[in-house]
Amino acid sequence: MSKPFEEIVFRPGKKLFVSDSPCCPPAQRKITVKKLPNILTLARIPCLFFIACFATLQNGWGATAAFYLFFVAGISDYLDGWLARKLGSTSNFGKLMDALTDKILTVGLLIFLLITPSGSAEAIASHAAKPVLPEFCAYFVIIILAREFMITGLRLVAASAGVVLAAERSGKIKTVLQLTSIGVLLFVHAAQTDWAWTVAPEAGGSFLGIGLGGWHLVGLWSFYGATLLTVTSGTGYLIKYRHLLFGEPAVSEK
Asked: Residue range 60-85: average pLDDT?
């Protein structure tokens, strides 16, 4: 009598073989589950490209899909760490990649918001639409980009010395503000692009009692606050771990 079904299983260093079991062995399933936090972390990188692709569509739903996809990516930023702690699978790789993928996602989307016009298809076609982030914000994005490169370089130097730099509280708040800013600005972009007929000022439209212009200001001020924390937290990192950069002996904290 034939078995219900057979499963192809791959093990490193061995050939493909057909398993007699209809499911993976318990040990193999355990390894796969423990990798889930890292999979969630790395998944935020392709999310950047999908969000940017959807947000440029002028089909009535693309910008909305980009907003929801960013929301899912933001949730994964919390979920991967929570799962790693629950599963006991925290690792130096996970800590390093979690910080790195956050930087790739946030900086990539900030650059995208700088160059992406927001408005109806007619406004974009006539070049009357303005970018989601004002042009002068390019200087702030450059500051953020420079800081992230420096801190990433510091993390790599620390990793080569066998030291893992955990995220500081100010850095975490900075990341939350950046994600909040990007989320609100993507919402404004979706509202202007896909829902213009419902939130237009002349139609009296608003969300949670706040007009579209008000939400735009919320996103911008969150961005300004994130930029300020970017400078202060980055400076704190460089001062605290300067011994790694200049080969000085670490100063013990009393």
From this structure: 86
pLDDT of residue 76: 84
- What pLDDT does residue 210 have? 67
Residue reference for tokens 């990192």: 237
For residue 130, the surrounding DSSP H or E stretch is: strand 130-131
CA angle 75, 141, 180 (to 5 degrees): 25
Inform me whether the pLDDT recorded for 104 exceeds 50: yes
CB 117 within 8 A of CB 134: no
Give the integer Cα–Cα distance in Å for 150 and 166: 15
- d(Cα 77, Cα 43) in Å, to the nearest integer? 10
**pTM (2 decimals)?**
0.75
Give the mean pLDDT of 150-167.
Answer: 77
Query: Do 107 and 141 contact (CB within 8 A), yes or no?
Result: yes
- The whole-angstrom distance between residue 47's C-alpha and the CA centroid of its chain comes to 8
Q: How far apart are CA 183 and CA 193, in angstroms?
A: 15
User: Which two three-digit tokens encode residue 242?
Assistant: 């300067």
